[in-house]
Amino acid sequence: MDTHSSSNYPFPTQVSLQDQYVGKKLEDLPTPAAVIDRAIVKGNCDAMLDVCQKLGVGFRAHVKSHKTLELSKLQVGGSGPADFVVSTLIEAENLLSLALECQAEGRGCSILYGVPIAPSAVPRLLCLASKLAPGTLGILIDNIDAFHRYHEQARDAHIDVYIKIDTGYHRAGIQTTSPRFPELVKTVAEKVGESFRGFYSHYGHSYGGNSEDDAADGLTEELLGLEEATKVVPKGFAGRLVLTVGATPTATAAYNMVSPSPKARGFQALLGRLKSKCTVELHAGVYPLLDLQQVATHARPPMGDASLSKESIGMKMLVEVSSVYNERSKPEVLISAGSLALGREPCKSYPGWGIIAGELGNKGGIVYDERDSRSGWIVGRISQEHGVVTWEGTREQAKELAVGDKLMVWPNHACVAGAGFGWYLVVDSEQGGDTVVDVWVRWRGW
C-alpha cells in the first residue's frame, strides 16, 4: 500500500494559475495575495551559498517557510549537494521528484526530517525511502524509547539517524548533560551503525537577539554544544560525523564571520578545529524570504552586499483598503486581511502586525522606521479576516489613504503569513517588480 499522502491535498494546476495572473499588474490583482520578489529571494539564496563556500561548510536548506519546489531549487543552486531539511513529511514527499532528478544526474541529495519522528509517521517515511537511494532520507532522535519504537519498524531501512541536541532552545532535543545522553548515543551507534550520521541543533532562541554579536555568539555556542556531544561517540565514528547547526539569525551571522575582526578570527579557529574531525553544515529556512522578525535581530549590517533590512525581505502581502476612518483620534483604515493572511505573531521591534511599504497606495509616503522616527502606517490591530491600519506619528505627516487603495505589507513572520495562501504571485524587481511573472504553488498538509 502506498502511504504517500500528497494526493490527499490536490493542487490547482500551475498552468491555470499562470493563465489567470501572469502579466497582471499588482494594482489590478485581487486581495489579499502573497507576493514574492524572485530577484530578492534568489539574491538571499545565492548569498547564503556563497558564505558557506567561503567558510568551507555545507549547507542544508529548510523548506518549511515557503513549501515550493521553485524556491527549494534556488536554495541549493544549480550544482553541488542538494541537501534539505523539512518539518513535515508532505514536504519530503513533494521533494521526491527533485531528489530523483538529482540522483539521476549524479548530484548528491539528502532530505532530513527535522522533527523527532512520531511512530505513526514511520510507514510513510519507509514508503518514501523505498523510492530513493539508500541514505537519502534522515531522521532526528532525542529519546531512547522513541528510538527503540522507530527501530522496530525500520531496522532494515537505510535511513540516516541524527541525534537532536538541545543547545538552549528547550523545544526539542536532549541535553548533553542528561544522564540518558551517553546511553542514547551508544544505542543508536550500535543499532544503525554507519547510518548514525551525527548531531543536529536548532538555535531557535536566536530570534530574541538584538545585534550582530548576539547572533555570532549564538552560532559559536551552538557549535561548542555539538562539539561537547561528540565526546561520547564510540571511536569507530571518528571523522565521519556531521554537525549541523543553525537558525536563520545564527546562519545569517556567518556573513559576519568572513571578516578579519577578532570575533570572526575566533570563530574561524573554532570552525577549523571542528572541521579537522567532523563535517560542519549550516541550516536555515526563512532566510530567502526574511521578515520583520528577522530584521529585528540585527544579525548582520543593514547596508552592503548582504544587508539585513526591510528592503531585503522577499515576500510582501498585497492588501486593499475597504474603509477609511479619518475622524478617529488618529487616522485609521480597514483592510480585508487579518490574522489568516498576516499571521498573529508579534514583532519585538514595534507594536504591530505588519508595516506598510512605500509603494502602490502609499507611494511617496513615510515608511515606518522602528529604529528612528517611528512614524508611518502599520497594521495596528487584527481580527480573523480584517485588519486595522493605523497611522503612527503626527497627523499632518500622514499620506491619506482611500477606499480601493492597494497596499504592500511586510509581515512579521513570513512562515505563518504564507500559510494562508495556496500559491505565491511572483514578481521580479530586476524586471520592474510591478507585474506578475510567475506563480509558485505551495504544498499543503502534513
UniProtKB/TrEMBL annotation:
Transmembrane segments: none
EC number, as in UniProt: 4.3.1.18
Keyword Zinc: yes
Reactions catalysed, as given in the entry: D-serine = pyruvate + NH4(+)
Pfam families (UniProt xref): Ala_racemase_N, D-ser_dehydrat
Alphabetic keyword roster: Detoxification, Lyase, Metal-binding, Pyridoxal phosphate, Zinc
Domain D-serine dehydratase-like: 314-428
Gene3D superfamilies the record matches: Alanine racemase (3.20.20.10), D-serine dehydratase-like domain (2.40.37.20)
Cofactor(s) of this protein: Zn(2+); pyridoxal 5'-phosphate
Entry GO MF terms: D-serine ammonia-lyase activity; metal ion binding
BP terms from Gene Ontology: D-serine catabolic process; response to toxic substance
Protein family according to the UniProt entry: Belongs to the DSD1 family.
Function, in words: Catalyzes the conversion of D-serine to pyruvate and ammonia. May play a role in D-serine detoxification.
Protein name (Swiss-Prot/TrEMBL): D-serine dehydratase
UniProt organism field: Trematosphaeria pertusa
